[in-house]
Design a protein that fits this description.
single chain, alpha+beta
Length: 213
């Protein structure tokens, strides 16, 4: 069974602190190309929703939300420039970025040459609804629609209070458990997280209607 990484383990790994330091440098570098972006940790950084897998390093799933692209750089150039900037600013102990189909993957190596943890970073157009994500097919890069991600930001803003977060955490963990057994083979973690968001909001909407009958 999957479980969430403890706050203590996350703190000791310094995974969030390292990423924050690196991403701020990347933001500064890429701004000279007319590109600005925000970022967030999938599952909400404040809620420590990073999942542990048995006998495997844990991964932190981040989203880069592209806000401005003043020079109208192509998806290929955007991703390649971000990869170059990450590689330039990664501290010692990290492997160079891997250019995955939809993500930028960065791995932290322990002193015994094992992977301690990794980052999976996807690039999303913040100005589109539904969101568009950069996808690579060999050397062809395109913006791809993610219709199931419509209203993601709005949905997340509605999750308030300990009870709602508890239900969301449970649903998200259940879905990631199912994914580990072969379900949702093509979906990214943030898409699964949004499904859990929608389910949680539906549960509380039903409860609200029941109370007002």
């Amino acid at each position: 069974m999957l479980e969430y990484i403890s706050k203590k383990a996350i703190k000791e790994s310094k995974c969030k602190l390292i990423f924050t330091d690196v991403i701020h440098k990347v933001q500064k570098n890429i701004r000279s190309e007319g590109v600005t972006f925000s970022y967030n940790l999938v599952g909400s950084a404040k809620r420590n929703m990073i999942i542990a897998y048995p006998n495997k390093p844990f991964d932190c799933d981040y989203q880069i939300f592209l806000q401005k692209n003043k020079k109208q750089l192509s998806p290929k150039l955007i991703k390649e420039k971000l990869i170059a900037s990450f590689n330039e600013n990664l501290p010692q102990g990290f492997k160079s970025c891997e250019n995955s189909t939809t993500a930028i993957t960065i791995k932290k190596v322990d002193t015994d040459s094992k992977i301690a943890f990794s980052y999976d970073i996807v690039i999303i157009d913040a100005n589109s609804n539904p969101p568009l994500i950069i996808r690579r097919n060999e050397n062809i890069y395109t913006w791809n629609e993610l219709p199931d991600m419509r209203d993601y930001t709005n949905n997340l803003s509605k999750i308030k209070g300990a009870e709602m977060w508890k239900i969301l955490r449970e649903h998200y963990l259940q879905k990631r458990e199912a994914q580990s057994h072969g379900k949702y083979p093509t979906k990214k973690s943030f898409q699964i997280f949004n499904e859990a968001l929608v389910e949680t909001l539906s549960i509380f909407s039903s409860k609200s209607r029941a109370r007002h009958k």
